[in-house]
């Protein structure tokens, strides 16, 4: 089985583990299992509770291992993750295992089924840690995806093991995007843009938010992405920060706020555009222009070495100088990747510094009761000498003709 | 603000809490926050890590409370959950709060923003527990959605509090479905069926799995459901238990396996149907008939009082007597609700007993290397005097004409 090439920044993974004196990492949250091991375990993504791990010895000084249920071995055979060693747990039945002349895809599953069946995820993990000679080592365990019961059994089975939480540490590992990650993020972004375009093209007075959402998500799934964030709000509902499409109908003069983005090959989009049904009021035009100035200005200043907290101040200043003198925000953006909120935090007090290879969302949302919600949000790739937009669309207010 | 009527089985919630001597429950996993409090906190559902809770004193002997970030108060205003008391945490900015004559939706948000801003989720939860006079009480905490850090801070803040894990306990509370839950499950089920119908209608030699998946998910989103489970596998890929649509093209004689279901108003579908492109082989026809017999037979025996382990044996026997004498399975189904795997477990050794109001998936999957994957899976509502199918479609093998 020829495994896929890693698409993650595994050098950063090893460097951060080494720097912190860890002998190994155990990834447990869905996004981290996929990021560290190249393995997407379906049940792990669509439910809470199922356990799947990647055991990753620092710099792969011993063998890395995927730990997953027998019923998900097919996904290993099909995905060919770069971590190709697998420990399986749990009973599951397949027939025809000794048929001669099986298809390579069948054979890959049979080969995986030949491995020992562990009673549970923790027993398989303990076996991996023991085989690596790390029973009394120091291990970073992503605490978000492991149940407290599993954590307790791990501590009991390996009392000399030093365990430290790793969820925030793995977030730092994911900060810099590889070219393949940027490609996926760009595609996720462009699919979200196409979905907005299709929605606004169909917009008309009397259309409900749900009717528009059907067109939005239809465009997303027709482009092989999965709906995740689908905030669409008309008029007074545009002020709802997380507006879920309702039966509210579009009226003349209404703001149409999109804060949206699906998942393409596991990678997220998160963008915002604003439409107006017919003629926008002067207040909407002016305030939108100020918010857009904030994002426009970000493109002028984003470069490696800029502090995220300075970017925050620059964007806030640009908005305040151009029509919203009292503009206040907790942040004006964040990284994006396999999770919708990667590092950096573009916020006051952030210690993050922009680096080439980051992909960031820069946004200037504004919610005013009695007026509506306005927002501009772009996905931007930080490059060696500045930045490039991942967007295909401009940032103008989109006027929908009646 | 007129809150929505509860749609959950809150009598069961209180009865199970009382029986186990708990003074209160803290729901933390997304499905449990929605189930117990009627509140759907978007970021909680689409990411891992964000915290949202429902504090539920047993039998509401003091006030229940939603604990969520300030940035999600809009969802409270819009959803009007039956738990209407809210404790918010975190900084978020809205303008226009003192404009006169606000729309009721705006005003509802302003009213929520008037509440105290807690620094974090744990501080808000501690305040709720203290106000209920339960600082030294016994509380069930759903351990899946609370970070270990939050759990540690809770224990530190309230050292006299007795905390026991509740995730499995809340699963037992969700077992019996109310009429509104059954309605949503039926609709989710019928949307999945319509998506299969549309997919098979478009099926033709040379079509790829991805092309079919686009039609499948498009039908789902056009019916206001969200894609979740989208296993579609052709030919050798039908044996992949979790087949994710690929560029593999449909060939004459191929099995087309669907194991699918989205989410409608938070409630899940999980059904399976099998198509064949052109003339199926005798082996496929015969083995499918045996598997179908298993589910057919389930309809004859499902009634309140039947042990789930007996249902397992009955279904297994029916399959074994009708063409697959060596049929083996770990289970032949499970409950379904706001999670895809609710109780009961239809498995050997299960202590669950069928009760009126349960909604169950009965399934007879069969994976044979060299042949393919075959599966029948229906959603069935257990009624006072037997059962009713939630399905609109029959269980026959679907022959696609070339």
UniProtKB/TrEMBL annotation, chains A, B:
InterPro entries: Creatin/AminoP/Spt16_N, Creatinase/aminopeptidase-like, Creatinase_N, Pept_M24, Peptidase_M24B. Residues 10-176 form the Creatinase N-terminal domain. It comes from the Bacteria. Residues 184-384 form the Peptidase M24 domain. SUPFAM superfamilies: Creatinase/aminopeptidase, Creatinase/prolidase N-terminal domain. This is Xaa-Pro peptidase family protein.
């Amino acid at each position: 089985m020829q495994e896929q090439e890693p698409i993650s920044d595994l050098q950063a993974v090893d460097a951060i583990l080494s720097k912190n004196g860890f002998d190994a990492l155990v990834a447990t949250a869905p996004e981290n299992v996929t990021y560290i091991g190249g393995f997407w375990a379906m049940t792990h993504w669509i439910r809470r509770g199922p356990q799947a791990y990647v055991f990753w010895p620092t710099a792969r000084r011993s063998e890395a291992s995927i730990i997953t249920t027998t019923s998900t071995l097919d996904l290993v055979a099909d995905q060919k993750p770069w971590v190709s060693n697998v420990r399986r747990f749990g009973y599951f039945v397949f027939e025809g295992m000794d048929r001669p002349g099986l298809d390579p895809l069948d054979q890959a599953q049979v080969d995986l089924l030949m491995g020992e069946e562990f009673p549970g995820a923790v027993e398989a993990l303990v076996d991996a840690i023991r085989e690596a000679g790390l029973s009394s080592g120091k291990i970073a365990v992503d605490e978000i995806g492991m149940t407290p019961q599993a954590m307790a059994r791990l501590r009991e089975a390996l009392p000399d093991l030093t365990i430290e939480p790793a969820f925030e540490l793995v977030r730092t590992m994911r900060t810099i995007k590889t070219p393949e990650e940027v490609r996926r993020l760009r595609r996720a972004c462009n699919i979200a843009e196409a979905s907005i375009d299709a929605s606004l093209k169909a917009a008309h007075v009397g259309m409900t938010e749900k009717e528009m959402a059907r067109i939005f998500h239809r465009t997303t799934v027709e482009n092989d992405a999965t709906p995740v964030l689908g905030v669409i709000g008309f008029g007074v509902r545009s002020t709802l920060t997380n507006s879920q499409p309702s039966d509210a109908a579009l009226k003349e003069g209404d703001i149409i706020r999109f804060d949206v983005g699906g998942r393409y090959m596991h990678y997220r989009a998160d963008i915002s555009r604003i439409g107006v049904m017919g003629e926008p009021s002067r207040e909407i035009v002016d305030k939108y222009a100020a918010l857009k100035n904030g994002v426009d200005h970000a493109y002028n200043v984003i470069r490696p070495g800029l502090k995220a907290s300075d970017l925050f101040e620059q964007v806030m200043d640009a908005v305040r100088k151009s029509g919203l003198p009292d503009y206040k925000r907790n942040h004006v953006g964040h990284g994006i990747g396999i999770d919708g909120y990667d590092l950096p935090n573009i916020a006051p007090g952030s210690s993050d510094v922009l680096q080439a290879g980051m992909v960031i969302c820069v946004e200037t949302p504004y919610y005013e009761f009695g007026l509506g919600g306005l927002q501009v949000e772009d996905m931007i790739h930080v490059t060696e000498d500045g930045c490039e937009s991942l967007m295909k669309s401009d940032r103008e207010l989109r006027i929908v003709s009646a």
